[in-house]
């Protein structure tokens, strides 16, 4: 995985999610994840690039078995303090997952591809270890808010200086390259996330509005086909002209 969050990054990330002014955006994000991934109770879910566990907090109430991986021990320490033994947490890279094929029902890449060295390899690994569904959440390249973040990064150091941004079309093309015509569904959220009011809230939650490709965060689900590693078997063929038993 490319950029490893340090302790300062982790605290800034947590602070954004706890800031009351971001409450609507956070609620929309977790609703999108739950609705699009839609795991059944008891299913195994891998959170790739789990960080301090913000997405794990959203998934825990769904009753799933959660495993989180991240290459940064700084953020994993915070996650372990939060969850204790309720979640399995391991240090690992998104591009080299230490799990068998089809080890999980679902995999989640929530704002993770932005910080890896090789996004295509990370996607391929996620598809390898999950057998049912993959959820990808990314900061949308064409959202006004994310354009603003990139401009701000020219003048000040932020986490987003290290991020690469994606569009819905780019991700669909990468998935098509990896999986062919696997079914892909997408939505975007936070079209006008800073605006207050009940009417704006209803507008943001509309499925029709979420079909607009310019929201701040894009979510995609990919329906996966389980893959099985084939083991070559020895083929035994009777030798031609083998002597037949003599009767009598």
The proportion of residues forming helix, as a percent range, comes to 25-40%
Radius of gyration: 22 Å
Widest sheet, order of strands: 3-2-1-4-5-7-6
Order of helices and strands: HHEHEHEEHEHHEHE
CATH fold-level label: Rossmann fold
Helical stretch tally: 8
The SS-based structural class is alpha/beta
CATH H level: which superfamily? Vaccinia Virus protein VP39
Distance between the termini: 75 Å
Please state the average pLDDT score: 86
Largest sheet: 7 strands, mixed
How many runs of DSSP E, i.e. beta strands? Answer: 7
Judging from the principal axes of the Cα atoms, what is the shape? globular
- CATH C-level label: Alpha Beta
Q: How much strand?
A: 15-25%
What low-confidence regions span 5 or more consecutive residues with pLDDT below 50?
none
Number of domains: 1
């Amino acid at each position: 995985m490319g950029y490893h969050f340090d302790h300062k990054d982790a605290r800034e990330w947590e602070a954004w999610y706890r800031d009351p002014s971001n409450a609507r955006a956070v609620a929309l994000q977790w609703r999108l994840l739950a609705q699009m991934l839609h795991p059944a109770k008891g299913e195994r879910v891998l959170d790739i690039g789990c960080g301090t566990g913000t997405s794990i907090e959203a998934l825990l109430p769904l009753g799933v078995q959660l495993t989180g991986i991240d290459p940064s021990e700084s953020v994993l320490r915070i996650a372990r303090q939060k969850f204790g033994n309720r979640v399995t947490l391991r240090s690992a890279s998104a591009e080299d997952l230490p799990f068998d094929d089809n080890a999980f029902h679902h995999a989640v890449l929530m704002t993770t591809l932005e910080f890896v060295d090789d996004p295509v390899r990370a996607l391929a690994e996620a598809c390898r270890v999950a057998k049912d569904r993959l959820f990808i959440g990314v900061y949308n390249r064409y959202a006004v808010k994310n354009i603003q973040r990139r401009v701000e990064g020219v003048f000040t150091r932020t986490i987003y200086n290290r991020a690469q941004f994606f569009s819905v079309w780019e991700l669909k093309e990468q998935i098509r390259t990896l999986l062919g015509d696997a079914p892909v569904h997408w939505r975007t959220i936070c079209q006008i996330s800073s605006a207050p009011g009940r009417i704006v809230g209803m507008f943001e939650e509309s499925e029709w509005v979420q079909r607009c490709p310019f929201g701040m965060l894009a979510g995609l689900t990919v329906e996966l086909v389980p893959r099985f590693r084939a083991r070559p078997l020895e083929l035994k063929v009777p030798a031609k002209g083998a002597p037949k038993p003599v009767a009598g």
